[in-house]
Amino acid sequence: MITTPIPLFPLGLVLLPGASVPLHLFEPRYRTMLQDVASSDNRFGLIAPPQDVSESRLPAGRIGCLAHVVASEVLPDGRANIVVEGETRFRFDGYVDAGTPYRMGAVSAWDDTPDLAESLASAAERLMALALRAVTASMTIHDVTSPAPAFGDDPALLSFQVAQLLRTGNDTLYALLAERSPLLRMQRIEKLLRTGLGDLEEAADLHVRAKTNGHHHGPPPG
Q1: Would the pTM count as exceeding 0.85?
Q2: Mode of pairing for the β-strands spanning 80-96 and 43-47
Q3: Could you give the CA distance from residue 13 to residue 26 in angstroms, rounded to a whole number?
């Protein structure tokens, strides 16, 4: 449950639920914010303004994500390196004057709407299969031999887990963040994955072939 108002960090980055993101805080107002949230629940709202819109003109209705500070390192000059994990989503309703150097925002919960369980299960099965293919190909290209990451069983969370793997722009990630239907979210992500999966798997195959340096390791031709 989100209490309101909350400290806000408008930033040109879309944080998704479940994602882990490193941030560097150098502005004095956000150093103060970090100190303040450390004395409460270590959470603030991270929200990406629309392109070419200043944070002072952040429109009501914009969707953001609650950021939980899970690690922090304050440098000698006061700057800080932190790691945040995305939690629940919220809708920005407007700024609140709370006398702080950083912005405070009135927010509302932004939860998913229900979809048919059968449809969700089918979409989740397809998405997980595609995601595992994409992860396997990427690991092959980068010579990663560790086990592939595990995906959760919850279709809503699965959609965000897979979305984190996408190499796409803020506009696409924001559309996924704002989408309240887990089914539609998974269908959009599936379409994005399918678009580049063939090229990714072909690159992985070429990488494996290149490592053999052109040598044939099978039985001699008959």
Answers
A1: yes
A2: unpaired
A3: 16
